[in-house]
Amino acid sequence: MSRAHKGTPHAKRVAIGRARHARRQLSSFFGRGGYEAARTDLRELTGWTPPLGSADSDSLGDIPALRARSRDAERNMPLAGGAILTQLDNVVGGGLTPAAEIDREYLDLSDEQAEAWEAAAERIFAAVTATNRFDVSRRLNFAQMQRVALRTVLSSGDAFGVRRSLPRPGDLLALKVQLLEADRCANPPGQWNSTTMRDGVEFDAWGAPVRYWFTSHHPFEYGLARGAVEYAAVPAFGSQSGEPMVLHVFEQLRPEQSRGIPYLAPVLRQLKQLDRYTDSELAAAVIASFFTVFLKRSGAIDDGPGLEDLTDPMTQSLASAAQDIKLGQGAIVGLEEGDDISIADPKRPNAQFSPFVLAVTRMLGVGLGIPHELLIKHFTASYSASRAALIEAWRAFEARQQWMTETFCQPIYEWVISEAVARGLLVAPGFFEHPLIRRAYLGCTWNGPTMGQLDEAREVSAATQRVEQLFSDRTTEAARLTGKPFSRILAQQRKEKRQMAAAGLQPGESIAREIGQVDDPPEHVPPPPSEEEAAHAA
Question: Which of 95, 176, 252, 345 is least surrounded, with the fewest CB atoms within 10 Å of its CB?
Answer without folding.
Answer: 345
